[in-house]
Amino acid sequence: MTMPRDSRIPAKTRTLFATLEVIFHATVYNIRKTHRNAMVGLLLNIFQTGILLVTFFLLFRFMGLVRTNRVHGDLLMFLMSGVFLFMLHAKTISSIARADGPTSSMMQHAPLTTFVTISAAALGSLYLQLLSIFVILLLYHVFWTPVLIEYPVGAMAMLLLAWLSGIGVGIVFFSLRPWAPDAVTIAASIYARLNMVFSGKMFLANALPGYMLAMFDWNPLFHTIDQVRGDIFINYNPHFSSQTYPLWVSLALIMVGLLIESQTRRHASISWSAGR
Question: Cα(26)–Cα(18) distance, rounded to whole angstroms?
């Protein structure tokens, strides 16, 4: 129900609720962009995650990595812990980087701002991925084996931290896109390819030699994946990854991205976008 203007609610509070309402509708629109039918969109997302899980499972089986590169425990839970965080991180980056920017025609509508589009893209990705994770774990629990997570609160915190780092990287790409759209597209593609290897989906930080650990240590997603395995498996204690490093990197990337986006918004124009 719409609140009357002469209510006792302060103007700032009404503005806040109005912004939240716009974010909600923009999030719903963002979720439905992949497919008009929300259920089909969810199934497509589950299918993508399932394909990646099956691919890594077969790779582990055929290359004989089952005994050498995993923690003692359920192999599929080991793979899912990496794939879930990787997919959430990658989908968040992709969604935010492709969100409507300051030169988009949608920005001609007064309530819509870049803050709204970024928030909607981030929340839409989180909603789809969390729902997909819940469905996959439920099916695995019912039809395969009971799911046991030793520290579910910590595991959820690492999942949200992977999402936060995706927001940080996505905002940087989003804010730079109007300046050099082709270069940003290439950079985002390179980052996604690097994450396929350097996210640590298939490795444990404790099992890596020092010279290889330095190759992975820069990546905040590597830290969150290794830490979440410490929360899932009782017999794994991550020694060479950190919970605070990805947090500070994510916050720094968000601040840098917002500063660049602020400058971009000041210089943006429709003709500038068309010229590029």
Answer: 12
Class of residue 178 by CB neighbours under 10 A (exposed 0-12, middle 13-18, buried 19+): buried
What tokens does 181 get? 């759209």
Per-residue pLDDT of 237-257, as tens digits, reads 888 888 899 999 999 999 999
Contact call for residues 171 and 37 (beta carbons, < 8 A): no
d(CA 121, CA 99): 7
CB 115 within 8 A of CB 141: no
Taking the CA atoms of the chain, what radius of gyration do you get in angstroms? 21
**Rounded CA gap, 246 and 221, in Å?**
7
**pLDDT tens by residue, 9-37:** 666 666 666 667 677 667 777 766 666 66
75 in Cβ contact with 53 (< 8 Å):
no
Contacts within 8 Å (CB) and 24+ apart, 198-203: 198/222, 199/82, 199/85, 199/86, 199/89, 199/225, 200/82, 200/225, 200/226, 201/56, 201/79, 201/82, 201/83, 201/86, 201/225, 202/56, 202/59, 202/60, 202/65, 202/69, 202/82, 203/69
Q: Considering the entire predicted model, what is its pTM?
A: 0.86
What does the pLDDT look like over 37-91, one tens digit per residue?
Answer: 667 777 888 888 888 888 877 877 776 555 545 567 778 888 888 899 999 999 9
